[in-house]
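User: Structure please.
Assistant: Input sequence and predicted structure:
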Amino acid sequence: MAKSILVVDDDPHIRDVIVYALEKADMRTSTAKDGLQALELVEKNRPDLIVLDINMPEMDGLEVCRELRKTSDIPILFLSSRDDEIDRIIGLEIGGDDYVTKPFSPRELVARVNVILKRMQGRTPVPEETGAYRYGRLTLDTDRHEVYWSEVAVALTPTEFAILKGFLRRPDRVFDRNNVMEQSYDINIHVSDRTIDSHIRHIRAKFAALGCDMLIETVHGVGYKLGPCE
């Protein structure tokens, strides 16, 4: 069965170019001109993948992604007119799967869409984890997707949550950056060491604000490990 792709961009010319390329590759398409319409179509049609522009008026692509990741793991390929690391880090850490920078080659975009879809098909289902991890004053509830420090809720992105859960599953282990990446992304995408460091820095900052100054410690020359949580 042909895969269904939702194309979201406020530029009708770009939508037409992408739709033409995808349909030529035997995929079915639907389109949205803004973020709100995109959320409505996702709820209605449940596409297999979303091609999502970042820079849109009213509700941009990053906000759309944040909303979707509250309830859905539909893969997202971002479109960005900015070729800088900020868009890449932000897009991937909130749950994006890949990105293409404008101006782009339609053939490259189709190739990236195919790669993501094949990765999704090749994923081995993992049994759903239930229950809670407790480590000192830290609690991570996998059922509710919630994290607490001394009973105070801590707001983490999906990637930050996955990273912390990986540490809690092996609290005595030292993780290198590859280990951190493997446990935090469900599909095999490449992210830089700086992106991993950024995730760790954000997690540390959120817990430091609650009085936990070194939740994740640096092991120089190796990687990271859980620090004291008392």
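The chain has two domains: 4-122, 132-226.
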